[in-house]
Amino acid sequence: MIIPRIFSIFVRMKKQQAMTYFERIKELTKSFPVEIADFSAPRDPASMPTQAESNFITNKEQGDWAENLLTRAVNDNSRNYIAIKYGKSDDLVAGDPGFSTFFQEFQTELDTIGKRPDILIFKKEDYREDLGMDISHIDHNLLTEYVKKAIAGIEVRSSAFLLDRYELAMQEKIQRCTVEAMAIRDRILLNYSTLLSVPGRENYLSMLQGITPETLKVVDFRCPSWKSTHDLVQLCAEFKSLKAALKDIQKRTWLSITPKVEDLKVVYKWIENYNVPHYYFQVFFDKIYAISFEKILRTVSDSQNEGSVFSVESDTKNQNKTTIKIRSTYGTKIAARVDEPKHESVRKEMDRGRLLFYIKFHGGTAYLDVDNFKQILNIEGEF
């Protein structure tokens, strides 16, 4: 029985090795949960924004800074590879003259070739000096064969957090809320067990008796609204305090790599056209983590990972777009240290005299972990 099983695994591995990169990705999409994204269906058309806000422009500036930071980190450390700007971008925002045309052309390109990753990595021998370090504004029809020579496409996401500080703060908060929740539980059982022993309230009593520090992550209940006596009113207040502590304990406690659900299909389409390995790099203000698109598909396709490795949420900081949030440390650490950028406030005058104020970022340094960078991009030999 063991020998046939080993042979079956060997055959499957050989088959996967014979596949092109796109064929592997295509195979993975077949087992991807359609409840999150159905790769067999056309993408939903995007609605054109009508008005820019300061937060949107600041986020865009932060994203541009993160792309530049990573590009410089690669180019300052590599003798044999080069990072160039590729992703479609423009300084136009909703409300600017020409934005409507830019938006429609961008949507057409998404439907034609998919979403360009922000950065392409080339071997220097394949780099074209005549095209330069920024090919983001060159028509995709003129770039097809050149882009296919890239060894990687990188989508850069950014988060205005210090990852180490965040994780420490969340650990302290969980410890504090755990102590608080257990104290409330003990107080209710000590002072109100008699009130909870009457018919119709016993479920609350058994629920409280089952609470331990290990079960706080999964405990849930509906707060009662008893009002007939002073003691019952006080008991309800205790339950509300317990509920609030549980809510904090049960929140996601880790920062994440953040692919948007709406981007999955257009990333897939780009891979279909160019057969170039695709990656997501998440730039924090103190570290950089990365994960391959292939690993994203594998991770999200395994429902056992939901809650512990990834979650699917509506992101209020990203125009409420549905986002897959993958625990950052589940990826590969690309930079263990980032020097923060300088920043300045900028005034932008819109139509009808409306003013927007946003932040621009300059400088900063990412200290690239060359070995990890090579590993995730499958680079062999001298970097």
Give structural notes.
With 383 residues, the chain is α+β, with helices and mostly antiparallel strands. The protein has two domains: 19-161 and 256-376, no CATH class; 167-249. Helices cover 42% and strands 19% of the residues. The chain is built from eleven helices and twelve strands. A hairpin with a 5-residue loop joins strand 10 (342-349) and strand 11 (355-362). The longest helix has 34 residues, at 163-196.
Q: What's the pLDDT, averaged over the residues?
A: 91
Low-confidence stretches: none
Order of helices and strands: HHHEHEHEHHHEHEEHEEEEEEH
The end-to-end span amounts to 45 Å
Indicate the proportion of strand residues: 15-25%
Specify the overall morphology: elongated
Q: For the largest beta sheet, what order do the strands appear in spatially? A: 1-2-3-5-6-9-12
Count of spatially separate domains: 2
Specify the helix fraction band: 40-55%
What is the CA-based Rg, rounded? 26 Å
Q: What composes the largest sheet?
A: 7 strands, mixed
- Identify the quaternary structure here: single chain
Number of beta-strand segments: 12
Given helix and strand content, the structural type is alpha+beta
Individual helix count: 11
Short summary:
The chain is an alpha+beta fold and 383 residues long. The protein is built from eleven helices and twelve strands. The protein has two domains: 19-161 and 256-376, no CATH class; 167-249.
